[in-house]
Amino acid sequence: MRRIMGLCKKTALGIASAAISFSMMAGMGVSAYAHEGNLLGQSEVTTIGQAEVTPVEHAEQIEETEAEENAEAVTKKAVKNNKIDFGTWKQTSTMDGYYYAEGVPGIAMTDPEFRLRAEANMSYIEYFFVTTWDITQDTAPLAVNTFRIVAASENALLGPVVQININKVVNRHHYSLEGNPVQVTTMIGIPEDFRMSGAKFGVVCVKSGGVYEILPDLDTYDSTVTFKAKAGDAAYALIRY
């Protein structure tokens, strides 16, 4: 494992973490906070059925209703990119989650979840939950530039960058798995415009603090990269040598 030094160290996840957080808010904030704009312009007392409610109570009711609608919309979107299509068969992720990342043709965790739950010392009511989203030049330029520096140091070309958070959920409450040693076999589809027959691929993993690691490609497919993802939150970039 290495740490980005000098100027790169500052841009790694001192500055880049802020950029990645911004990317998260840009990608997820609409669902989380879209209801706020609908709370303006309400009358002082609103009648619902036979009961009168205060503006605060009415706002809470709106918030609860729209939160449920947002959750449903997110869930529908979440399952869209959690599988990789090989033509004759599909690899679907073994873990539930919000698979927002669309810059790659699929992200799938391939280990049986029950085995990883045992490795992670999770109880029978705890389950893995994965959240992914794209990190792009438009939404997080400092983060992408950091990955570009790392790729150049490896004499490699930078490909798509994604955030992959592997944490746990207990009774609908989410908890961090940061620091848990469990590793999750993860497969990412390589975009067609980044594929090259016979090329060697790898993955750059950047954790909080700017520490990064080059992970080898564990599969032999030309259309995917497979690697061991870390529990907790991390950003990953595909590189081509």
Provide structural commentary.
The chain has helices spanning 6-14, 16-33, 55-78, 113-119, 141-153; strands at residues 2-3, 46-48, 51-53, 83-85, 90-92, 97-99, 107-109, 126-135, 157-170, 173-175, 183-189, 201-206, 211-216, 224-230, 232-240. With 241 residues, the chain is an alpha+beta fold. Helix content is 29%, strand content 34%. α1 (6-14) packs across α5 (141-153) and α2 crosses α5. Strands 1, 6, 8, 9, 10, 12, 13 and 15 form an 8-stranded mixed sheet that branches. It has a 3-stranded antiparallel sheet with strand order 7-11-14, with no helix packed on it. The protein has a two-stranded antiparallel sheet with strand order 2-3. It folds into 2 domains: 2-32 and 81-240, no CATH class; 43-76. A hairpin with a 2-residue loop joins β9 and β10 (173-175). It contains 5 helices and 15 strands.
What is this entry, summarized?
The chain is an alpha+beta fold.
Describe how the helices and strands are arranged:
Layout: E1 2-3, H1 6-14, H2 16-33, E2 46-48, E3 51-53, H3 55-78, E4 83-85, E5 90-92, E6 97-99, E7 107-109, H4 113-119, E8 126-135, H5 141-153, E9 157-170, E10 173-175, E11 183-189, E12 201-206, E13 211-216, E14 224-230, E15 232-240
Parallel strand pairs: 6-8
Antiparallel strand pairs: 1-13, 2-3, 4-5, 7-11, 8-9, 9-10, 9-15, 11-14, 12-13, 12-15
Which short descriptors sum up this protein?
single chain; eight-stranded mixed β-sheet; globular; 241 residues; three-stranded antiparallel β-sheet; alpha+beta; 34% strand
